[in-house]
Amino acid sequence: MKILIPPKKEQPNLISTLFEEFLLDDSRKRSQQQVVSFSKLLIEQSGKLREDSKPTEEESLQLENLRNTLNNQWKEQSDLIAENKVYVCYAKISLLIILTLVSVCYTMGFLHILNVNDIWYPIVIIIEILMSLVVLYRLLKLRQRIITESQSDVELGTEKQIVLETMKLSYTEQLERCVDFYSKEVMPLKEEAKALSNHAYLWGILCFSIFILNVSIFQIFCVIEALKQFNKDLTLALQILANALQMLPGISFIAAIAFIFVVTFLRENAVAM
User: Which residues span the membrane (predicted)?
Assistant: First the structure.
């Protein structure tokens, strides 16, 4: 009678597991610190099971690929930080434009209600626009500085690289160095890029909220004025209502974009809806 010995299950490759942890961690419900702790635990367990401390030829190639991957991740995250900083500037510029328009409209309305002399209209509005232009200039200057610094880093080659001393370090020590590089250099960049991305989304949501709120207030005001004019001047009342209705398609489109913006923000941050 033959005794069938079940085939020995192959252990998953440690470096492949680290690749998966470093590259796919954003799609999992796991924090960056948990990724690092889990990776260090895997390396520690692997070191206890290994007989030879030196990596094989195949493992050396995998270590080199892991090193290149981490170096590329550092570069990608650095570029992403600069890109997100520029997006934050654009979001602030958009908010500035919206606030300027809202301020001008409300200023004209208040001056009209207070029966202020028409000569003050352009003076007050020009002051508001000049103040906005000063802030706009500072934001554009900040944007240009961010782009210039990012380009100078590329030209000067100020990139951080992980170096593995293959002749001196053991297999587990080289893996530990990779994990340390990820935790000290790559992980902080990922967190900063994520925070800047959230800031850009929040500034954008604020822009949409202010715009939609003020347009809605204006429409409500038009409806109230139309109701007041129904008994006095029916033609004028219908004209006011028509002007208010003409804005509905535009505000509905902007509201739809704002909704998509909010949903994207919630998905990026894994918020349950």
Answer: 93-113, 119-140, 200-227, 247-266
